[in-house]
Write the structure tokens for this entry.
Amino acid sequence: MSLLIGLLAGVFGGLLGVGGGIIMIPLMVGFLKIEQIQAHGTSLVAVAFTGIAGAIAYGMHGSVDWTASALLALTAMTTAQFGARFANDLPEWKLKRLFGGFVILIAALMLTKPYLHQFAPNTLSEWLKIVLLLVSGTLTGFLSGMMGVGGGTVMVPAMVLLLGFSQHTAQGSSLLAMIPAGGAGGWAHWKLGNIHGNILMGLIPGVMVGTYIGGNTANLLPDRELRYIFSAVLVWTGLRYIRTRIPAAEHP
């Protein structure tokens, strides 16, 4: 089952330029019956391998900006560890509700994706670009460590909207930045005891194969229909998580 989960997450992650954690986490909680925080930690380790396969696929088509990826990862590696510790201290019901809201936000970003380039600035100084990438990495890293995702849903709009990157270059660069950022967050979760090693044995090969397939077919499939279907599934998933009940013992 973990192999299939990884394969599905990898294919969609490669197609849409995201780490796949937003798919892996609900499936691991629902089908493998593991705790929410453990799903976040386990997902984040797999996300690092998603980045490897995805960056290779996009890099073969010249759609990776190595400098931008390095700047994003520079701050994300630090803040991902803080995000992991913050998530570890939250009650499970609260973490589930926050994850649900985050997933719905991702759905909204997916729907606006084709229109992002219209708002991209014409010119920015090189120093301002560096600052924006470092700030984006800071936010992305924290969310990545907290939510167990790669952070592409934050990095890609930032690169397209603020820096004028093409959609494919932004997706390829975000996947490359996920490797060190996901690794740092995964290491923090491992030290907190939030990693399921047995699940990773199936998840990692599945996600790498799936991401490679998705990354290489990203230009061949109808983007609009994929986004609509994916966004609808995310909204449905997010609403289910938001409705998570507070345990009776924690009611005021």
